[in-house]
């Protein structure tokens, strides 16, 4: 069983839709959670980062962490075609700069 | 402000050869981590360098080695290349372990 599970998709939505991306994990030691966006043939780009449980909002993006369920989510409001990319969740037991454990990534396609 | 840079962008090698990949961290960062990303997978942690020492290592064989220079730049060396080493190799930098990691564009390695 992988430490971090993420549905690979692809997830296809119309422009303007609300997108929900999710990851589950098995290691209860994870405390630092991140979402990266990766365009084709590019390196991952940091979108959001949160510590422990709760919500964090930044523009059209909201990150949620539910440590009791070992479940994290990224919501994208008013999705745009430029949001089409692979979204990777990542987590670490000790600080953001430590070894990151990634999910396999979810491919998102936003249709105009 | 220059971000993380990596060279070369692409590389083709044959089985049994050796390869060296290079990374320059984001300005002000002193910690460099290397990840391997196979097609359709999330990045896998190889190792991390801080103050010219390997501080953490993932589940990779000794064929994978690295180095960090006094200016914080880093090299990843892979010996006795296997077909399975074909992947995107990503470098990420951070300020010690406390801060989030920023990724470079990666080096795409193909082993024939």
Please characterize this protein's 3D structure.
The complex is a heterodimer of chains A (about 110) and B (about 110). Chain A contains no helices and 11 strands. Chain A has strands spanning about 5, 10-15, 20-25, 30-40, 45-50, 55-60, 60-65, 70-75, 85-90, 100, 105-110. In chain A, strands 2, 4, 5, 9, 10 and 11 form a 6-stranded mixed sheet that branches. Chain A has a 5-stranded antiparallel sheet with strand order 1-3-8-7-6, with no helix packed on it. In chain A, strand 4 (about 30-40) and strand 5 (about 45-50) form a beta hairpin. The radius of gyration of chain A is 13 Å and the shape is globular. In chain B, the strands form 2 sheets. In chain B, strands 2, 4, 5, 6, 9, 10 and 11 form a 7-stranded mixed sheet that branches. In chain B, strands 1-3-8-7 form a 4-stranded antiparallel sheet, with no helix packed on it. Chain B has about 110 residues and is an all-beta fold. Chain B has strands at about 5, 10-15, 20-25, 30-35, 45-50, 55, 65-70, 75-80, 85-95, 100-105, 105-110. The chains are: A mainly beta (about 110), B mainly beta (about 110). Chains A and B meet through strand 5 and strand 10 of A and strand 4, strand 5, strand 9 and strand 10 of B.
